[in-house]
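hey m, so remember when u said the tokens were messed up on ur end? i reran from scratch. heres the input so u can diff it against urs
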Amino acid sequence: MAAGWALELFRGEVTRDHEDLEIAVPAGQFGPVRAALAGFDLEVVGSGHRWPLDSPAFGVMHQTWVRDRATGTYRLDIFREPHDCDTWICRHDHSIRRPYEQLIAHTPDGIPYLAPEVVLLFKARHARPKDHADFTGVLPLLGPDRQAWLRAMLARLHPGHRWLTYLQQPQLPRREGAQEAQHPV
């Protein structure tokens, strides 16, 4: 899971409505995902446009939407992420890299999700009200290492971002009873 649902999995609770389900896959491993979704329509999306999956836009844009043929409803948003073998590469700055073992956390039931600090880094780009609510809801749950990584990457990608003000403070107190995810980062 990626985006808002990844943060819900990290928190262990659903805190808001979600419009869709997002996942991220290494771009080079999209083939098996595509094959598994053969009964759906897949479209490349970006810059306010949609293209057929086999269009040249596939090599330029990173998002693929999955639509139910019977209802026309979009069910899934797939982010095709740059990578180098077992290392994720940030599409906004290729110098930002993390091994997948640090990028992917798991719920106690084994559901994989994107590390919350990475989700927040991507949400910072638009910082819509729901993104800010996600940030303020998750921040007290992040340990010092996750906060430090997010602070450094926000400063690099979005200098002057308002979230940096929150991250400049020493470690924020955790909510009572809150625990950080068990997956080390």
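this time it looks ok to me. The chain has two domains: 1-114, 115-173. if urs says something different then somethings off w ur setup not the seq
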